[in-house]
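Here's my example:
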Amino acid sequence: MSRPKAPYDMEPVHDWARLVGKSPNLIVYFAGWGDGFDATGTRNAWNSGALTVVSWEPHGTTLTQIADGASDRYIRTYAQAVRNLNIPVAISFADEMNGNWERWGATETTPREYVRAWRHIHTVFADTGATNVIWTWSPNIIQPGTHKDLSPYYPGNKYVDWVGLVGYFTDWDPHSFTGLFGSTLAEINRFSRKPQLVLETAAMPGRHRREDVRALFNGVAVSPGIVGFSWFDHKARADWRLASSQEGATEFRRMAANDLYGFDVRKVR
């Protein structure tokens, strides 16, 4: 689940639990380059049984500058804060890199520079002793405006723990899990067998949302490589908020009742 102000403020999390009948065990928040690490929010999430995923977006710099060490003081300070918290946290750096809409994406930089920046950040964290990070590499699903060959962007198994996926059910996309994610999963499986996480997903409100919610849950349930998903509960280019569609929210609550979802991540060994 991703909601504004969560997990620093836990009321959006509690409200989500009331809506879907179960507390989330995965909370994603977005951080800009230069922001400090939200240790308070990450601790709040952990104490509620949830893992935090930081979607770290390098606005205001370039991947080449990062790779060349221009931000090392900032990265080191961030890594020290993560290390000092000493609980698991996932970090997804510069996601959707295969798309053409971000400054760190396919039209503004090269796969080589992306990989250099990723590996450099990973090395700084390792040198700082921040070993409690689950490094989550997160391309957008293959679609018009994205590169189909994802392997040049992959930093390598040594530098990646999970593979994230960003993909949304829209009125112009297939209304099935395989139709939306299948080709991207097949491409990723060519070069990586790391666990997979649907980092960002949601469905447009309207007549297809109930069907899309069901497709999401059923698709995750039969995909042994996928460890979970996060619903992007924001109003952005569409109103992705679950509460914006009663039928979708009711179906989500019904599907989420399955014991497969919502376990306490602190009990995973």
Q: What stands out?
A: The helical segments are 11-20, 39-47, 63-67, 72-85, 111-128, 177-188, 209-221, 246-256. Residues 73 and 124 are 10 Å apart (CA to CA).
